[in-house]
Amino acid sequence: MRSLTPSPSVAAPARHLPLPSPSLSLHCSLSSLGSVFAAKLMLKLIKEMDYVKGGLGWKVWGAALVLSKKLLSLQKSFQDKRVIELGSGCGLCGLLVAKLGACEVVLTDYEPEILTNLGNNALLLPASVLEPEQLGQSTTKMGSPEVACDYTYDELASHKRPAIIRVRILDWAEDASSFLEEKELSYPFWPNLSSDERFDWVIGSDLIYNHYNIKSLVGVINCRLSKQGGQGLFAAPVREKEWEACMELLEVEEGGTLHGVDHYEGGIVIIHVTHKL
């Protein structure tokens, strides 16, 4: 495979772009985005979790806010595209892409509590649940795997067709089945993501917490990114050498071109990768 070739902008001095000011209040943090999306939708609808139940996915982290701002600047790039969000947590970025005109968005995580919260957050959009016969599987009022997001109620996109939002288990180490067997059966059933699904965009924020999940993350990106010009957009705090190690492994595993690296205040970076055959 051809290695990732950094663009001239990558070699240039780092640009430190403004970081949304940190706040304990989701309302205050998102208001710094200055968007119709923040005002009309996310400030009212995104629900965070209790840390005990949600672990690292319990809240909207700073990297997700930065990625959201970047997604808004690329609005037209997502229209009629299939998008997967890795490590969705509360689902902010994936739900935003659904509002920007994507035809299908898959929100993924692996903790049952997080998956349930993702489904509930999707249902809190101005939306109607798709009928079971339309999708070939059942839906429930809360924690539904499939919802249709009707975003004609705001000004983010002129698109009038609803996006399909799916919630799926995606354990990067591919041990979702054994993991679920150890959990209580009181949680809603969330299907695994089919192994043959590929996407126009793979997005994610704050995905690297330990060095041992770097190779798994790169494997998921390589597997899920469409080989026909698929693109990846990732935001992360720079923690020691972990993100650099991830990029080095991408150079080995991916046959693509690194579009650029944007550095934000507070140590947040956004990486944009395009897959090329």
Q: Would you kindly provide a written description of the structure presented here, covering whatever features stand out?
A:
- With 277 residues, this protein is an alpha/beta fold.
- The chain has a domain at 22-211: Rossmann fold (3-Layer(aba) Sandwich).
- 32% of the residues lie in helices and 20% in strands.
- The chain has helices spanning 8-11, 26-31, 36-45, 51-54, 62-73, 92-99, 112-123, 132-135, 176-181, 214-224, 242-253, and strands at 16-17, 82-86, 104-109, 127-128, 146-149, 163-169, 201-205, 231-237, 256-264, 268-275.
- The chain has a ten-stranded mixed sheet.
- Strand 7, helix 10 and strand 8 (231-237) form a beta-alpha-beta unit.
- The longest helix has 12 residues, at 62-73.
- The N and C termini lie close together (8 Å).
- Mean pLDDT is 66; it is low at 1-41, 127-159, 175-180 and 182-187.
Write the layout of secondary structure elements.
Blueprint: H1 8-11, E1 16-17, H2 26-31, H3 36-45, H4 51-54, H5 62-73, E2 82-86, H6 92-99, E3 104-109, H7 112-123, E4 127-128, H8 132-135, E5 146-149, E6 163-169, H9 176-181, E7 201-205, H10 214-224, E8 231-237, H11 242-253, E9 256-264, E10 268-275
